[in-house]
């Protein structure tokens, strides 16, 4: 008898300790999210939000080219950024892990991710200093006479991609590096014993073993990139709007919350699909 | 031999190139914050600290700085306390549905900040609740709580259970055990969680932008400065924020993580 009452007391205590965090998440994350999902099925009429259940917002998304194009732009930019970042970050992580002497590795890594700590808004702004019409690159190129007219890089998709790649190379270097140094040197020795050359060892042994690190970083890149408003807004300007920019436009002068909610749900579905696609490798990492 | 020299030369060249790419915007940012002139682009006209003086003389910017600190520290304290209590409960007691609870606590990590902000904004609007620094803080706890919970939960190993049992046998209640035994043992990861969530909250833009009204945080104030185009004053405040973050990072590296490595 005493045992059960003790258990009950323990259970109550345990719930008590977990309750604040659970309630916070329920009240300020789950409930708002469900509310938003419900709102995506309402619609705006004039300045009023009418609570009539309908699929108008979703139908409009697929029939209005400007809206659908936002998702296409988002996906294109995100895929380009993810691929470029992996391609740039992998050799960097590999060189730090393999070529840089052990005692300088931590230093090299900290250096590689130092600009990570500039303010997010400021980081995009500082690329504007480099890429704008009278910015560093254009002045350098015209200065040495390589081009006559300044290049229009700012306010284009290229600028958005550069800004994103800069940020995510740092992130991916971190995830791939930490994967690389966990590999036992025995794998390499075994491959060499079996007659593999350096390239074969890399392609058949090292690369597959670092796939979890790549996929973790790539998934993070995908999620953060597709949901970002700041970088495309500052660097890409108003050409080729991405989905988050279109969502923010709905909130602005149009005050169309139901449409913004529907677009957010669509954005989340894109992320979920990416998660399902990566889940296999993400799981290996956790085990 | 020649091939090895070639490969290693190529490696170092690549390293230098990528580092140049990574540091280029930061270097330009800091260099032209000292620009003696109205445009933060080449040519560099000469060294001046006038823009830093302008930053410190800017009341709105300084108020935003204070707001950011307030929101970052208070939301991180709340995140750490709630995260610690939940981690203690889930790691030490076998509750039914604990996997579900863990999933729920981690869930906000997988959702874009924009969507979290939009959900909160629509609900607050529907309830006619006014936006303020408090609502920004609430949003920041939502994004930082999963982080704090995950970090602290991961560091709660079984080897600490015996020490906690010993404390309990000696008559300590749960709160005493947590405050005097568990928390001190986990201090490195609690501090890591705290500082990480301070940096996230400090730098967070979209939630702070959508959930604030009159009092704004620093990233939101910087955002409104961007409307005036390229301006060395923006360089100056950006450089200051960078310097502060790097200082914090170095302190962490040499105190906290340096200590855990030795243990």
Textual characterization of the structure:
The complex is a heterodimer of chains A (287) and B (263). By secondary structure, chain A is mostly helical. Helix content of chain A is 76%, strand content 2%. In chain A, helix 7 (157-180) packs antiparallel against helix 10, helix 7 crosses helix 11 (230-236) and helix 10 runs antiparallel to helix 13 (257-286). Chain A is globular. The mean pLDDT of chain A is 87. Chain B has a single domain (2-262), classed as MetI-like (MetI-like fold, Orthogonal Bundle). Chain B has helices spanning 2-31, 50-57, 59-92, 98-106, 113-126, 133-155, 161-169, 174-185, 187-203, 206-210, 218-225, 232-262. The longest helix of chain B is centred in the N-terminal third of the chain and has 34 residues, at 59-92. Chain B is globular and about 70 Å long. The model of chain B has no long low-confidence stretch (mean pLDDT 88). At the A-B interface, helix 1, helix 3, helix 4, helix 5 and helix 6 of A face helix 1, helix 3, helix 4, helix 5 and helix 6 of B.
How are the elements arranged and paired?
The complex is a heterodimer of chains A (287) and B (263).
Chain A: H1 2-39, E1 43-45, E2 48-50, H2 56-63, H3 65-98, H4 102-112, H5 120-131, H6 136-143, H7 157-180, H8 185-193, H9 198-209, H10 211-226, H11 230-236, H12 243-251, H13 257-286
Antiparallel strand pairs in A: 1-2
Helix pairs in contact in A: 3-7, 3-10, 3-12, 5-11, 7-10, 7-11, 8-9, 10-13, 12-13
Chain B: H1 2-31, H2 50-57, H3 59-92, H4 98-106, H5 113-126, H6 133-155, H7 161-169, H8 174-185, H9 187-203, H10 206-210, H11 218-225, H12 232-262
Helix pairs in contact in B: 2-12, 3-6, 3-9, 3-11, 6-9, 7-8, 9-12
